[in-house]
Design goal:
Number of domains: 4
Strand order of the largest sheet: 1-2
Structural class: mainly alpha
CATH topology of the largest domain: Arc Repressor Mutant, subunit A
Radius of gyration: 26 Å
Mean pLDDT: 75
Oligomer: single chain
CATH architecture of the largest domain: Orthogonal Bundle
CATH superfamily of the largest domain: Winged helix-like DNA-binding domain superfamily/Winged helix DNA-binding domain
Number of helices: 12
Largest sheet: 2 strands, antiparallel
């Protein structure tokens, strides 16, 4: 079947050249006027423009964020690989970003399992992983991520526990709870997260040292450090105290995001 060139049959005026070539002149003019108003407002009224932009961003996130996340992120997460095809490492990392969809993969659940196994005796990352898989089978829940991704998460939490002096190595790849770790298991049977670990001086010192090392490449080291440490203290991404789109604002965000990446094994 031959295609029909509709432009020969529709009397629609279009722009013949430039950035808006092919658009209706009214649409092109509207876009140009909107850009002009934006530029004038930024130059003449920067504070008001920043406030308006912040309000517009919040409204956009409120109205469209959940839909945007669903369209771009969620469908691939629930699509299991075809037979004979393994999970890719990027796919595993994307899945970790949605741990709220898998409560048994949350940090408190995994750390609670480490504390429980540590109370019973020595533990390994493989032993924690097998115990977690047994927990899934008991709950009749499918494994939503590759087994290796679960093991990596346990390894990361074990490293954090060792820094906080909750665990101590007894052999290559084997740990046991310290006295402090047993106290933590008793006080936090539901598990620990970074906001709990930062209360231990060794872990807090490690976080401060990590923040300083990560900030070396950032010209705004103080705001970067503040953002990094804010995340480790459990503050939300919206706690940024700096004016929108300033260098300090972006540097604080960079520090916060770096701390989030460091939390993922």
């Amino acid at each position: 079947m031959s295609s029909i060139d509709m432009s020969r049959h529709l009397c629609v005026r279009t722009v013949e050249a430039g950035l808006y070539k092919g658009f209706n002149p009214t649409v092109a003019l509207s876009a140009k006027l909107a850009i002009l108003v934006l530029v004038v407002s930024l130059v003449g009224f920067p504070t008001t423009a920043a406030t308006f932009a912040e309000t517009l961003r919040e409204m956009t996130l409120l109205l469209f964020a959940s839909c945007w996340v669903y369209l771009l992120g969620v469908p691939p997460l629930y699509r299991r690989p075809a037979a004979g095809v393994g999970w890719s490492r990027p796919a595993a990392r994307r899945l970790r970003m949605f741990e709220n969809d898998y409560p048994l993969l949350s940090t408190p659940t995994l750390t609670a399992l480490i504390l429980q196994l540590g109370t019973a005796g020595e533990l390994t990352a493989d032993g924690c992983t097998e115990a977690f898989l047994a927990l899934l089978r008991t709950a009749h829940e499918p494994l939503a991520v590759p087994r290796e991704a679960v093991r990596e998460r346990f390894e990361g939490h074990i490293r954090q526990f060792e820094i906080a002096r909750l665990l101590e190595p007894v052999a290559d790849g084997t740990w046991r709870l310290t006295q402090r770790g047993r106290a933590a298991a008793s006080a936090h049977p539901q598990g620990l997260d970074p906001t709990d670990l930062v209360l231990y001086p060794e872990y807090a010192a490690h976080i401060r040292a990590s923040a300083r090392s990560h900030a070396e490449a950032d010209p705004r080291a103080a705001s970067y450090d503040a953002g990094y440490y804010a995340r480790r203290q459990g503050q939300p991404f919206t706690a940024n105290p700096h004016m929108l789109n300033t260098a300090d604002f972006l540097s604080w965000e960079n520090g916060w995001m770096e701390a989030l990446d460091d939390e993922r094994p």
